[in-house]
Amino acid sequence: MAIIESVTDEDAGAVTRRRTAALFHCLADPMRLMILEHLKTGEHKVKELTEHLGLAQSTVSAHLACLREGNLVKARSVGRSSLYSLNDEAGLQTLLKHAGPLVRAERGEHHWLDEHEGPNSNQEALHSVP
């Protein structure tokens, strides 16, 4: 007898957490961030990225595979080559913009925990971030 399992809210939450972890794993490597920066200028072949970044083709391909798994880039076939591009440039820009205060906090430039005394106490600091 087969047991049919339904997806519960808890299971959906676990899936969301795994996908979020995969996304941040993709963003955790400086070379992958450089690839994303290059792809902001338009579609690129792996060969072009290897030339721009000075990396081996296998290294660039591995980074692109990770970025595809994280749904950050997409590929389209053209003949025997694939052209890579950003999957959601606006979404990526928004994510990186909101990460700015956290990045600066790590360097000691912004201490939002010290400033947070009420529900709106750090709103001015958040809105002043470029």
TrEMBL record:
GO terms for molecular function: DNA binding; DNA-binding transcription factor activity. It holds the Pfam family HTH_5. It comes from the Bacteria. The keyword Transcription applies. SUPFAM superfamilies: Winged helix' DNA-binding domain (SSF46785). Residues 12-107 form the HTH arsR-type domain. InterPro entries: ArsR-like_HTH, HTH_ArsR_DNA-bd_dom, Metal_resp_trans_reg, WH-like_DNA-bd_sf, WH_DNA-bd_sf. Keywords: DNA-binding, Transcription, Transcription regulation. PROSITE patterns: HTH_ARSR_2. PANTHER family: ARSENICAL RESISTANCE OPERON REPRESSOR ARSR-RELATED. Transmembrane segments: none annotated. CDD domains: HTH_ARSR. It comes from Glutamicibacter creatinolyticus. The keyword Magnesium does not apply. This is ArsR family transcriptional regulator.
